[in-house]
Amino acid sequence: MPELPEVESLVGFLRGRAVGRTVTGVEVGAISALKTFRPAPQDLVGGTVVSSERHGKWLDLGVAPPAAGGGAGETLHLVFHLARAGWLRWSESLPATPVRPGKSPLALRVRLDDGSGFDLTEAGTRKRLAVHVVTDPAQVPPVATLGVEPLSPEFTPERLAALMSSRNQQIKGLLRDQGTIAGIGNAYSDEILLVARTSPFALTRSFDADAVARLHAATLGVLREAVATAAGRPAAELKDAKRRGMRVHGRTGEPCPGWDGTPCGDTVHEVSFADSSLQYCPTCQTGGKPLADRRMSRLLR
């Protein structure tokens, strides 16, 4: 799933390619992806892309109405979430063939006046990609309820401590809760917890001030590094760049590179769940003690 760094890069990519261009076509390939019906996707046609923004893991393209006729009308927002298996595929020259709704991965195509544009695609059978056309991004409920942006000035150690003390939960869950902290998912929470030298199952109210400060610094460090790595890359390169940058996530059985870049001599371990898994290093994060698989027994903290 694209997380904050990849979405931020996609937003920058669209800002450089799409802003200033006129929308000449919007074609729906998967009705299930469209979560709103008014305004319609076709209402974007003729408008000019004026902004590209990010809200957590959501992308937001602002499209102003045509200037002809006095320019009356509100700016519309194409707001979309790529979910676990979705992606944005840019083309400098889109096929002229119209999109036909069906079983293909193509969910939505946006055409621009220079022949370029992008497709939103989703692999697999579990279709969760979501597309909204609204006059205000806050009209999308998951956007309206997003928590603090972790790279914003509002995300201070004090703010993090308050979020952690509000209820006692596993720290991995808090980092992934979009209503608490926006933009972090399964992959980057694994990376943050390695750098913070923290068990994914540690309870939030067990953290002292030093541990909170360490977690805050790890969150900023991991995300800033990932954003810098992704910046300027074409959309087609972002997935591979993300995989290459992971220290523990997706690296079960490989040598741990160490929380500070010094190999610790241990290997990356995994805990599996019904439809996901997490990776961690016992030496760096749990005092050398492997975590129990939740499917088999109680979690160790």
TrEMBL record:
One of its GO terms (molecular function) is 8-oxo-7,8-dihydroguanine DNA N-glycosylase activity. Belongs to the FPG family. Keywords: DNA damage, DNA repair, DNA-binding, Glycosidase, Hydrolase, Lyase, Metal-binding, Multifunctional enzyme, Zinc, Zinc-finger. It catalyses: Hydrolysis of DNA containing ring-opened 7-methylguanine residues, releasing 2,6-diamino-4-hydroxy-5-(N-methyl)formamidopyrimidine. Coiled coil: none annotated. Gene3D superfamilies: 1.10.8.50, MutM-like, N-terminal. This is Fpg/Nei family DNA glycosylase. It comes from Cellulomonas triticagri. Residues 2-129 form the Formamidopyrimidine-DNA glycosylase catalytic domain. InterPro entries: FPG_cat, FPG_N, H2TH_FPG, Ribosomal_uS13-like_H2TH, Znf_DNA_glyclase/AP_lyase. One of its GO terms (biological process) is base-excision repair. Residues 247-286 form the FPG-type domain.
